[in-house]
Amino acid sequence: MKLKIRSLRLTALKTSFSMLTLLLKLIINFSNAIRKKAKNDKD
Fold first, then answer.
1. pTM of the full structure
2. Measuring CA to CA, how many Å separate 38 from each of 10, 26, 27, 42?
3. How far apart are CA 16 and CA 26, in angstroms?
4. What is the pLDDT of residues 2-42, one digit of tens each?
5. Cβ contacts of 21 within 8 Å, gap of 6 or more
6. Can you give the residue ranges of every domain in the chain?
7. pLDDT value at 43 more than 90
8. In angstroms, what CA-CA distances link 41 with 5, 28, 34, 38?
C-alpha cells in the first residue's frame, strides 16, 4: 500500500514538473514575441 502511494506521488510530481516546464516555455515564447514586436515598432 505504501509503495502505491509513493508511486502515485512520484507520478503527480512528474506531471506537475512537465506542466511547469510547458508553462515556462510558453512564457519565454510570449516574452520573445513581445520583444520582437517592440523592436519592430521602434523601427
1. 0.64
2. 42, 18, 16, 6
3. 15
4. 888 899 999 999 999 999 999 999 999 999 999 998 888 87
5. none
6. 1-43
7. no
8. 54, 20, 10, 5
